[in-house]
Specification:
Length: about 130
């Protein structure tokens, strides 16, 4: 009995933090202007929704011992949402790669490295 109560508290806490993350994430994304960063953030937010649904199905199974809905095992639904989560994250990573390539992060980071080295070299030559 104590195990069930502890499990309920842990699941409720996880649901509360997960829901807060989704709500605050949504409102934060709405503050961004349209563009690549907002699109990327929304894709990650959709991935979080899929992950949350999969976790909710798992919690439903743990708390109430539901094993099937309409004769279909809940594990199939759970892993279907987890698979969707990973597919959406792969798309988000691909979008991030395209965004970095478009903006030219690698070229700019090399320029910043060279500038930092010049500053360090200048500082070393100024020392007595």
């Amino acid at each position: 009995m104590i195990d069930r109560i502890f499990l309920f508290i842990v699941i409720f806490g996880t649901m509360a933090f997960g829901t807060m993350t989704l709500v605050i994430g949504y409102f934060t994304l709405q503050k961004l202007s349209s563009g690549r960063i907002k699109d990327y953030g929304m894709v990650v937010w959709y991935a979080l929704i899929f992950f949350s649904i999969g976790g909710g199905i798992h919690s439903l199974n743990l708390l109430f011992n539901y094993e099937s809905i309409f004769g279909i095992n809940l594990f199939y639904f759970e892993y279907l949402f987890y698979c969707g989560y990973y597919i959406i994250l792969l798309y988000a990573l691909f979008s991030l790669y395209r965004m970095a390539k478009f903006i030219g992060f690698s070229r700019r980071s090399e320029e910043m490295k060279e500038a930092m080295q010049q500053i360090q070299n200048k500082g070393e030559s100024d020392d007595p």
